[in-house]
Amino acid sequence: MRTAGVVEHGRPKHPRHGWLPVAGLADVLLHSMRCLPELESLILIQSATGRGDISLDFLYASCGGKRNGKARKLLDLVIPRADSVLEVLANTHFARAGLRVRRHVLIPGVGEVDFLIEECLVVETDGSTHFEPRSVKKDQRRNNRSILGGYLVLRYYYEDVVYSPGAMVAEVLSVLELRRRGVFPARPADGGDESA
Fold first, then answer.
1. Element containing residue 174 per DSSP (H, E)
2. 79-188 under CATH 2.60.120.200, yes or no
3. If DSSP codes are grouped into helix, strand and coil, which group holds residue 155?
4. How far are the Cα atoms of 123, 151, 170, 172 from residue 97, in angstroms, in the given order?
5. What confidence tens digit (pLDDT) does each residue in 148-172 have?
6. Where in the sequence of the chain do the CATH 3.40.960.10 domains occur?
7. Per-residue pLDDT tens for 89-129?
8. Which letter does DSSP use for residue 122 in this model?
9. How far apart are CA 177 and CA 42, in angstroms?
10. Model pTM?
11. What is the pLDDT, as a whole number, of residue 195?
12. Are 115 and 103 in contact, with CB atoms under 8 Å apart?
């Protein structure tokens, strides 16, 4: 008997939850890749793999065949060591825009940055802890050191990443285009003239 608004996925293929009458985590995640919007499923998978509740290798192995190409592309977006949901979402939006992105890059004198885009633009995604006065000062000093090191810097917050990702990506692309046109000189390590 079918229930209105319920999608039948068939019988569970993996062990059920240990004591709750619900499907096991593996079935929930695998079905989420087929039924939920991409970002919602990605967050579930990122959380489960990040906590060590399930392995990414297991999920890849469970998504073989031609009909699971979309699921494998989603698994490619999982960050092995994500510091926040904002990082996962921003990474996805940057990847969709075709940007060359490195995560958790250690920059001498600055420390580890969330993203280094196209080897010249530092992008930080900041949650609520970054609004504390001590954090604000630390972040501004890191921005200064990044700029002195020849990098451009943009910072985005929860509202930007979650509610306005298109505007965030457009700003990143605009800054990269301005750099390409010479508004911001290339870093010496990128082949620019050190005296520029």
1. helix 165-180
2. no
3. strand
4. 15, 21, 9, 10
5. 899 999 999 999 999 999 999 999 9
6. 79-188
7. 999 999 999 999 999 999 999 999 999 999 999 999 987 55
8. E
9. 30
10. 0.77
11. 35
12. yes
